[in-house]
Amino acid sequence: MGNKPAFYSISQVAEMTGLTTQLIRKWEQRYRLIQPERMPNGYRVYTQHDVDLLQKVSKLVQSGFSVKNAVLSVQNQHSHLRALESHPEYQQTSETLVSDRGMDVSKIQQLLALGERADSSGLIETMQRMQQELGIRPFLYEIVVPFLQKVGTFWKEGVWSEYQEHIASGVTRDVLIQMRRTLRTPESGPLLLAACVPYERHEIPLHMLMIEAALEGWRSVFLGPSPAEGAIETSIVELQPVCVALSMSTLEPVHIHPTLIDELSQFAAKHANTTFFFGGRGAQAYFSTHSAHPFYLVQNLRDVLRTPNFF
């Protein structure tokens, strides 16, 4: 008595979700969100899992998502949860993981809904509020990193236009720059010089690194995306930084200037008192066939932070 039925009719699902039967069929056929079973008499029957998926998509659509993006988001969450549940440590920490994941996913979905509408002012206000609520490091790694990963995926798969991707990435960059400007560092602190290599414009990881450095008392100078050839070397001579962080996300810089990395390598070898880090997918690809010396080759920001020569 009181047990929930194993299956629901489409009219019951409509009543439970607040969706019309026509809309349920449309989402089923167009987006393949759910795949109801058919009884011998031909009627569709739905499970509680189907109801849950429909309710999640409906909630996202109401918050501003397009139906297509809402379905993609829910399907990605479901795939992630299945992978999580297969992990051997899941049973010990499931309640904490699901709770934390739900909180983060909700915030990221909120940002994605704003990005979907290319609402730059809404993105700025929401990101600033999240940073104040969570603190700097949780905001960076629990919000910024997964948000940008989603943005990149949506753009690569054609779900978002280049304009939507540009707004989301640009706002994130601006928020990070403002965060760094509000962090006070001692004038006597060691200096970090951060730069994209010439013809490279992917700067967000460097802004995150400079924020981390500021939290540890480091001063930082950023040369900007795609500095002029020779600007990195000139700045190092003038500023004498303790560390230099270089970023190259594609191989385009070496296609444009084939000897670029060789020249930087020769320069770095002459400045033994400065520690040079090199990161980005382009750097990983280049150094897979070239010696990385004298650079510390890193795969991501946290590799830099774990290097004894840095902090």
Automatic annotation (TrEMBL):
GO molecular function, one term: cobalamin binding
Record bears the keyword Transcription: yes
Domain annotation HTH merR-type: ranges: 7-74
Pfam hit, one: MerR_1
SUPFAM superfamilies, alphabetized: Cobalamin (vitamin B12)-binding domain (SSF52242), Putative DNA-binding domain (SSF46955)
Entry keywords, A to Z: DNA-binding, Repressor, Transcription, Transcription regulation
Statement: the UniProt record of this protein carries the keyword Repressor: yes
PANTHER family: MERR-FAMILY TRANSCRIPTIONAL REGULATOR (PTHR30204:SF69), REDOX-CYCLING DRUG-SENSING TRANSCRIPTIONAL ACTIVATOR SOXR (PTHR30204)
Protein name in UniProt: MerR HTH family regulatory protein
Protein's organism: Alicyclobacillus tolerans
